[in-house]
Amino acid sequence: MKILVIPIHDNLKNQISLFTTFATMFPIKLQQKLDDRKENNALRKLVASNNLIDFSSNDYLGFSKSEVIFNTTHQFLVDNTIKENGATGSRLLSGNHTLYHKVEALLCKYHNSPSALVFNSGYNANVGFFSSVPQRGDVILYDEYIHASIRDGITMSHAKAYKFKHNDVDALKKIMLRHSKRVLESHHNIYIVTESVFSMDGDTPDLVAISQLSKKYNALLIIDEAHALGVFGNRGEGLIQHLNLEQDVFARIVTFGKALGCHGAAILGNEQLKQYLINFCRSLIYTTALSPHSLATILISYNELIKTKNREKLQQNIQFFKSQITKNKLEALFIESESAIQCCIVSGNDKVKAMSKQLRDKGFDVKAILSPTVPEGEERLRFCLHSYNTQEEISSLLKF
Question: Prior bond to 375 cis, omega within 30?
């Protein structure tokens, strides 16, 4: 048996060598940024899930692990003869499955909103909204601690943007007065954006005062309710409805990957806003839609939210955690919060990472939040509370 040997010509050898070189190259500027992160002990890494006691996830009500939701979702799909694995395309092409209409109708009813538009994630919703809605000549006023997804959307916008001091209504009013007359005279708009619960602090702004300010100066108010949904309200509707402010807010962003335990997000607003986003929001137009299974899980999770007792358990744990802060005389270290997010300031990346490791060694999963995610000097341990945490776990956790 003869073996055919194909000679490799010099030019082909050079091409292979060139390919190998490009495949192993990495730009010097990018490597320098990685080296800087390593030097500051701030390099992010993907870590595998663990079996530690959970004080780090956003699964506030335990819905992500609910067998009831999992099994009911499966049965719902079977009963409705829905056997598709994927959406097959964007919502404007082939992906606008009938379950989208059911989910959005439920959201309108549950959140007392004229319309709802489902997105693939909270990030997609925020980037899409702020990159497409504010126009050239408009002004965006945003809390200095606003989420990165909103900042990214603002960066893509043609509007001018100005930050105000965190949760400071007086600072917002001053910056509003600086721009309101010029903007109104030119028939442009002012957008105010904040969160009802801040993800890295767990605190809440004076939403009533901000709402009154926005009405006084004809500004359009946008509230991100990601960490309030499922935690606040008689049925977990969020803080805006809890305060009866839904009629004063131009747009609300609700996300399903936290207390709802599944995936996706929605923008709540009037019908004109929905039609505008369908026509001009690139993160909706140019992405594959959610699968039928994802949409069904949202439906079933909302049904479970109506009847669950886990909200009461979560609120009890929040209050118990706060009582243990007082008992252990740790008040000076913690940011005041009534939410499921409780943060202990531990300045310095090295120090906060060491404390996080100590807690891991004791069996607790508590994440260290490093700069530059938070300002330098304000690094912290971020405790996320859940309905399934026990008082014994909480009591032991705070003895450090």
Answer: no
